[in-house]
Design goal:
globular
Length: 71
């Protein structure tokens, strides 16, 4: 299968990703129901999201998909 998603290289302490439970090494597969094709596509998807909106974030971690909630 073709690789997809955005690799999380680091997480800012106290930032939205950390509060959502996202860890360095996770691969973000979808954000707010929108598929993340690669690392370049993620910032645009995030920027188009309303500030303060709670959104589901699907990540790949330790050979499993997890759905977390980011705000």
């Amino acid at each position: 299968a073709k690789a997809k998603g955005a690799l999380v290289s680091s997480v800012t302490p106290g930032g939205p990703a950390e509060k959502a439970g996202i860890l360095a090494g996770d691969i973000i597969l979808s954000f707010d129901g929108k598929a993340v094709a690669n690392s370049r596509s993620l910032p645009r998807i995030v920027a188009e999201t309303d500030v303060g909106k709670k959104v589901p974030v699907t990540v790949w971690r330790k050979k499993k998909e997890l759905t977390l909630t980011a705000e």
